[in-house]
Amino acid sequence: MPTIAPQSFSAFVVSAGFLGDIAYFALGDGAVHLIGPEPKVVQAHKGSVLAASLAREGQSLVTSGDDGRVVRIAADGTLDVLAELPRKWIDILATGPDGAIAFASGRAAWTRDRNGVEKEFAIERAVGGLAFAPKGMRLAMARYGGATLYWVNTAGTPVELTWAGAHNAVIWSPDGKYVVTSMQENALHGWRLSDGQDMRMTGYPTKVKSMSWTARGKYLATSGAAAAILWPFAGKSGPMGQEPLQLGARGEDALVTMVACHPEEEAIAIGYQDGLVLVSRFQDGAERVLRRPGEGAISALSWSAEGMKLAFGTEEGAGGVIALP
Predict the structure, then answer these.
(1) How far apart are the first and last CA of the chain?
(2) How many CB atoms lie within 10 A of CB 99?
(3) Residue 237 and residue 112: Cα distance in Å, rounded?
(4) Can you give the pLDDT at residue 122?
(5) How far is the C-alpha of 40 from the C-alpha of 260, rounded, in Å?
(6) What is the mean pLDDT of residues 173-188?
(7) Which residues, in sequence order, are CB contacts of 61 under 8 Å at separation 6+?
(8) Around 233, how many Cα atoms within 13 Å sit in the side-chain half-sphere?
(9) pLDDT of 191 strictly over 80
(10) What is the pLDDT of residues 264-298, one digit of tens each?
(11) What is the largest CA-CA distance in the chain?
């Protein structure tokens, strides 16, 4: 049976995960709790943590807040301020290769490389989301009317990916062949970068707020429905003409709020509006309950690197680490 090491916090859990063996919980009151042999609380922001992203090496966490700061927190609690923009809410954040970060507020975005060199990007509409490509310093920026791809370190012409509507979060496929955005209108939109082919994924009753690729990029798992919806991307045309895989269906009153694909196996952790967490296997849909309902909707969900622990948090400030046998 799985075991749970519960935590109780005083604020909404914005993000949860692992810095090596240390579990972290970034909260709506600006604090980041580090749970290990010697628990620590780092006051990262004067207001709320608005966004958090694990650095690619997995040993530090980058957060941004409504105090205009972007900070990096190490597993030992050390905090470094990476950027300060007074009177701005930094609510969009991405981590990239070799210590690079990107962050946005309103109609502007910035990148910062490991040497502290910043570059600003200004657009006509508010930035909806940011994501670095799996390899190289290429940045995807979601916006109204589509997404734009920038080579950060060159002066080349950006690639414009167009589709009417407001585009929010953005994500690259692990092989770098596709870019997918969530939209304001309860849908996803994707582009095949080799030829710009559009891919529209609809049918959600609510907005998609969580997306997670399987380890080898075969499926893109999403929240926003009464089951985890997994769109197939293994073929040349992505999900077009194919039905999505649906896992963990519990009825219309139990919507999925968070998804986290296992880092190695074809399995997925699913968090629900009522606080339930379960894991489901792709092959046969077999399920295993990891946490019973209660204490608010699941707002954060993340596997450890080896896939034997799962960190979770809720909107009401509950959290914890689930250890699999």
Answers:
(1) 6
(2) 18
(3) 35
(4) 84
(5) 26
(6) 96
(7) 15, 17, 19, 24, 26, 32, 52, 53, 54, 55, 72, 73
(8) 28
(9) yes
(10) 999 999 999 999 999 999 999 999 999 999 999 99
(11) 55
Residues 89-118: what's their mean pLDDT? 94
Could you give the dihedral angle defined by the CA atoms of residues 46, 6, 273 and 21, in that order, rounded to the nearest 10 degrees? 70
Q: What is the pLDDT of residue 155?
A: 76
Contact 31, 11 (CB under 8 A): yes
Q: How do the domains of the chain map onto residue ranges?
A: 91-202
Q: What single-letter amino acid sits at 320? A: G
- If you classify domain 91-202 with CATH, what class do you get? mainly beta
pLDDT value for 266: 95
Residue identified by tokens 């009151």 is 29
Three-class SS state of 63: strand
Task: Give the residue among 285, 279, 238, 288 at the shortest CA–CA distance from 261.
Answer: 279
* pLDDT tens digits for range 28-82: 999 999 999 999 999 999 999 999 999 988 899 999 999 999 999 999 999 999 9
